[in-house]
Amino acid sequence: MDELHNRVSFEWQNTFDALVESVLILDVNRVVVRANRAAYELLAEGDGELVGKKCYQVFSCDSTQCKECLVTIVRHTGESITLDHGYSFHEKTLRLSCAPRIVQGQLVGFIHTAVDITPQHSLEKQLVQAQKIKAISTLAGGIAHDFNNILGVILGNADLLLYRLEGSFSLPGAASKPISHEEIKPHLQAISKAGLRAQDLVSQILTFSRQASSSRRNFLLGPMVKEAVKFLKSSLPSTITLKSNIADNVSYILADPTQMYQVVMNLCTNAVEAIDTRHGVITITLEEQKISEVDADNASKKVKNGEYVVLTVQDTGEGMSEEVLERIYDPFFSTREVGEGNGLGLAVLHGIVSAHDAIIDVRSSPGIGSTFTVYFPKINSMDDNSESTAETLMPGGSETIIFADDEESIVQMYSEMLEYLGYTVITASSGKEVLEYLHTHPDSVDLVITDQTMPLMTGLELAFEIKKIAGSLPIILSSGYTDSELELTGKEAGVTTFLAKPFDMKNLAAAIRKIFQAGSKI
Fold it and tell me: Please, what is the angle between helix 140-164 and helix 118-138, to 10°?
């Protein structure tokens, strides 16, 4: 009998160790009583022992219970649970599952499994990013077209100003006529407006392509959809006709502008791919709708009663069958040929829409086309975080400011702005020059404004050095590309304020006075 028992036990252990998944058997107190070979290879550390340890000591390497404990959930529900991407273990991402062990109707313990999904998780992130880049590359022609229009306005008005300013230059046979202040102003306003449009376009592209998302705010979807329509018209093949119906005065929604741009681009890219090389029509509509209980087929849309900003993208493409419709939001599912799509466009879209408490409805028929409709909850009025267009006076001062940038033209322009506002300006082309001045004039500077990207010493490195020698001297760090990591490190370095380049005179003046009024300088 003992020999039979030992043989069965030996065979059981061999089978247990042959499992690819890491398996832990726990008692009712979360203590590991058995572990297979895969578990030791993945989870064991230090003394190499797993048996006798609590489950949270294995997975979180801590002496306290995990915040989201699978065992606790299973104990209360009596059902198995899987937590995807739940824990990070030694730079590995694990998929954890937990199931109850029931013997004769009694809970005697738990079975805990772990799978290393680090490669899959990394691939998913890369493919999501690739989906963003694909949307931008699809519209590259439209972006180039828009930029050329902007540059045309800037260069054209600059040429007119140079020509009309007395003594600037002359053309054979052309009369030189002095220009008045009233005549200069429209040219400058046109240049400024075009510059702001270019700045907004660059910012939109950067925020869309980066991995970090911006925060939600009260947002008007209409202008952004109109901009997307312009891009599409410039980049679509001649076989596709684009129609748009953007209602005036559409209300605000609470949204992340970057992700809204991605929603529109994903829907439009999907419509283009559905039409493919055939002749077809894409219709983009934006309007407000009030949904009530009496609305027909409202139940199928799962849209609650209320007021919505509704975005619709309709195409006359190949359409989808019921079987395909059921899977369109599945990650990596695609009806395209291998290598032509990663199957993440609509999965990403669905995730964004759900995160914004919005509803997406899809109607499609094979050979007829598809209609995607997104219902965003409407916001009735703007709140305090929305931008104001009211004109305000630019505040000035008499303090001493160091302005550092390695671009000579940038230094000249902003130093003139600061002098116009009343400040004494010390210019520098490198972090080394800033530090040299602070060493020789330790008490004469009230604020340092520095660019992030400079040779030999970055703005962040300069900020750390200033913190060592000048204590709490206020610092404004400017950069054309600011992300959360830069801001976090900047705060550690003593940076007071971040300014995204290019910034105008009004924003610069307001940022400086806010620092001084807050008493940042000791």
Answer: 50
- Tell me, what's the pLDDT at 1? 55
Residue with tokens 């540059």: 151
Q: Positive or negative, the Cα torsion across 453, 520, 413, 483?
A: positive
For 135, the enclosing helix (H) or strand (E) is: helix 118-138
CA distance 39 to 45: 11
Is 179 exposed, middle or buried, given 0-12, 13-18 or 19+ CB atoms closer than 10 A? middle
Assigned CATH class of 400-517: alpha beta
Of 130, 147, 200, 168, nearest in space to 344 by CA: 130
Amino acid at position 54, single letter: K
Residue 338's pLDDT is 37
Given the DSSP bridges, would you call strands 475-479 and 497-500 parallel, antiparallel or unpaired?
parallel
pLDDT category, 214, cuts 50, 70, 90? Answer: low
Question: Cα(94)–Cα(118) distance, rounded to whole angstroms?
Answer: 7
Q: Decide if pLDDT at 394 tops 80.
A: no
Using DSSP's 3-state secondary structure scheme, residue 520 falls into coil
Which of residues 10 and 319 earns the better pLDDT score?
Answer: 319
User: Which segments of 178-330 does DSSP mark as H helices, in order?
Assistant: 181-209, 221-235, 257-275, 298-301, 322-325
CA 63 to each of CA 53, 59, 110: distance values in angstroms, whole numbers, following the listed order: 10, 11, 19
pLDDT in tens, 110-140: 998 988 887 777 776 676 666 666 655 655 6
Burial 13-45 (b: 16+ CB within 10 A, else e): eeebeeeeebbbbbeeebbbebbbebbeebbee
* C-alpha 277: how far from chain center: 32
pLDDT band at 196 (very low <50, low <70, confident <90, very high): confident
Q: What is the mean pLDDT of the chain?
A: 78
List the chain domain ranges. 2-116, 140-377, 400-517
Residues 6+ apart with CB under 8 A from 267: 311, 313, 349, 372, 374
- CATH number assigned to the domain covering 2-116: 3.30.450.20
Q: Tell me: the pLDDT tens digits for 288-314?
A: 998 875 554 554 456 788 889 999 999
The two domains 140-377 and 400-517 share their CATH topology (first three levels equal): no
Superfamily of domain 140-377: Histidine kinase-like ATPase, C-terminal domain (3.30.565.10)
The whole model's pTM is what?
A: 0.47
